[in-house]
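Quick one, tokens below. Sequence please?
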């Protein structure tokens, strides 16, 4: 559960930074922040819960698990971006991509570092 706590903390820090940027430059980023934060938390919490299950029952499948989680995260991000593209205009799409990309990359880096350390201990 250490991974979930760190994910929540990272998400809070990113959201606070985004809110500061939004306030300083008078940008309308609230919906992009909320959607990106929810995406990050849902994917990170789900991957942590599934990781625990895989590590307990099928530890030999962990390399496949990491590949699967990365693939799922990428496909889910593409679906989310496609939905946002259909429902927004060009300016809103550009701002959403910038905000979402930051959340996505921080989440991906966090997952890679955390689970590589956990895998080395197993």
């Amino acid at each position: 559960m250490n991974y979930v706590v760190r994910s929540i903390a990272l998400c809070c820090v990113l959201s606070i930074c985004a809110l500061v940027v939004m306030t300083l430059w008078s940008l309308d980023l609230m919906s992009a922040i909320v959607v990106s934060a929810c995406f990050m938390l849902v994917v990170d919490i789900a991957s942590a819960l599934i990781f625990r299950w895989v590590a307990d029952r099928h530890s030999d499948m962990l390399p496949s698990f990491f590949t699967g989680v990365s693939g799922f995260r990428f496909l889910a991000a593409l679906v989310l971006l496609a939905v946002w593209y259909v429902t927004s205009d060009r300016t809103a799409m550009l701002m959403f991509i910038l905000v979402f990309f930051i959340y996505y990359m921080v989440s991906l880096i966090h997952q890679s570092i955390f689970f590589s350390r956990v895998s080395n201990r197993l």
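The chain has one domain: 2-121. The chain has a mean pLDDT of 91.
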